[in-house]
UniProtKB/TrEMBL annotation:
<protein>
    <submittedName>
        <fullName>15351_t:CDS:1</fullName>
    </submittedName>
</protein>
Length: 113
């Protein structure tokens, strides 16, 4: 895009073998050190950008039940600071739901990123 970047891009020489070796090392340590190690979980973050905050669509997403095999977070991005979010705020105490309201309308692209 033509907008100024929010951060400086850097690259790192991460290779899958480095990460795999690190994970294996931690798993071995946990197996040898912890009596009942915590099982490995998949992490899933669901990002839902919205402009109109239509609860008939958001509520079923926000009421999804968690899984025993995955750590899930639902992140709602409200791109219209003038939206009525009173119904949405009822979910803000849910540890698996995060709500972020933009201070101004940034557009669909920014809301998704």
């Amino acid at each position: 895009g033509s907008k100024k970047q929010h951060y400086k891009r850097t690259s790192h020489d991460w290779r899958f073998s480095i990460l795999d070796d690190a994970v294996l090392s931690v798993e071995k340590w946990m197996h040898n050190t912890i009596k009942n190690p915590i099982p490995k979980l998949i992490t899933l973050d669901v990002v839902v950008p919205t402009y109109r905050v239509q609860m008939e669509y958001l509520k079923p997403i926000l009421q999804l039940k968690g899984s025993k095999t995955a750590s899930t977070s639902i992140i709602i991005i409200v791109d219209n600071p003038n939206s009525n979010i009173s119904d949405l705020k009822k979910f803000e105490n849910n540890a698996f739901v995060r709500i972020h309201v933009h201070e101004k309308n940034l557009g669909a692209s920014e809301a998704r990123n």
